[in-house]
Amino acid sequence: MRNNLFKNKRIRIGAAVVIGGIALLMIFRPKPRVNDSLDEVEVTDSVEVEEIVCKYGIPIDRYDINYGIVRPGQNLSDLLSDHGVSSEIIHELNQKSEGVFDVRKIRDGQSYAVFTRPDSTRKVRFFVYEENPKSYIVFDLRDERRVYRGENPVEWRQKEIRGKVESSLWVSMQNLNTSPLLAMELSDIYGWTIDFFGLQKEDEFRVIYEQECVEGRELDNFRILAASFRHEDSTYYAIPFVQDGEMLYYGASGNSLEGAFLKAPLDFYRITSRFSNSRFHPVLRRYRAHHGVDYAAPTGTPVYAIGNGKVIAKGYQANGGGNYLKIRHNGVYVTSYMHLSRFAKGIRVGSEVKQKEVIGYVGSTGLSTGPHLDFRVFENGKPINPLQIKSQPKKPVSPANLPAFEALRDSLVKRLSAPGPLATDSI
Asked: Check: CATH 3.10.450.350 for 37-151?
């Protein structure tokens, strides 16, 4: 019995010595040389190993990085061969990219990064092409040679702005150090309610919105969370609310801001001539009726269908409307779009078009002195002032959904109506 105890004790002591030796070996094992470890490093998710800082999912402390901009005429072969990559490897990467990314779509002006070994070989291990601010393509030049797409993390930042119209909403956004494209978002929301060509000085707006950001860089992508617009002594609220699976913007009473027709067939350009029974024609040099509205805009500006309908005429008038389209919207209204530089692809007689669908582009064809859109509306065959067209709103908030809508509305209106300037940036 005593011999067995002594034997077990020796076994335990021996095991402890072995375990201790392994622990010491782990603590004092020699670190790998830099050149030995570089090509064994796999692309690492920075979430998994927090202490490793990554760019495009690649540990940046393991490589030297050179950033550049694609120059006109450069392709993948040019970019890689400039960094000493052989034609054989470039050919292999071209093959590996099939089904992932069309290398022929590398565009000048886009950013790229080259990851090289920090030794005398300067071998390229990764080439990264930024397709857009959110998406990039990684060309892995290590032994396996692979090509894959990655996504930069996206953050949505909530912001609030308040301003007054001085000359145009576009200029007002610039004065607030906000992207003017936010004005386009407001135009989309209020396009059935407010004539943005008829804005007046001192018209006031407040907007609560989210803006998409990538690595601190603000993108021109927005989500309007609430807005108010004071125009002609009335305040128009825009409250987003989901009903029957569809998110629409509603006014304070619960009526949808979206109507059957847009207020205008293009975005943010001057009205140079209004509906009139006697207008002096700049080409014919005489007075005659002008049963439409002329919108001055640069050649190529997109022109929208103001409502759902069917194209009933498409043609060219040399001494009249130039390239023109007519759309029947229902049994009552027909709209006409003239002096187009060209038609949208696929538009033909019989085409069904949707509201805000691009149907053509501003031009100066036909009897015209400069690029503009001559827009006309016919009600039961008779010309009417396009700026006075009636537009019935979409379905209002239902009685069953009204309590939830009113709670949301009251909260947002209170926030939009708070005195003093709104915060310019908040998370």
From this structure: yes
Closest residue by Cα to residue 321 from 338, 342, 341? 338
- Residues composing the chain: 427
Quote the tokens at residue 396.
């209002």
User: What would be the CATH architecture of the domain defined by 270-388?
Assistant: Distorted Sandwich (2.70)
Domain ranges of the chain: 37-151, 155-259, 270-388
- Say if CB 140 and CB 147 are below 8 A apart: yes
| Residue the block writes with tokens 């392709």 | 75
How many whole angstroms separate alpha carbon 387 and alpha carbon 275? 8
Write down the pTM of the prediction.
0.61
155-259 maps to which CATH number?
A: 3.10.450.350
> Residue 417 has what DSSP assignment?
T
Do the domains 37-151 and 155-259 sit in the same CATH topology, yes or no?
yes
Structure confidence by residue, pLDDT tens digits, 135-157: 999 999 998 899 999 999 899 99
Q: How far is CA 70 from CA 64, 129, 132, 323, 346, in A?
A: 19, 9, 13, 39, 34
In degrees and rounded to multiples of 5, residue 407 shows phi and psi of: -65, -45
pLDDT tens for each residue of 191-246 = 778 877 678 888 899 999 999 999 888 998 999 999 999 988 889 999 999 998 88
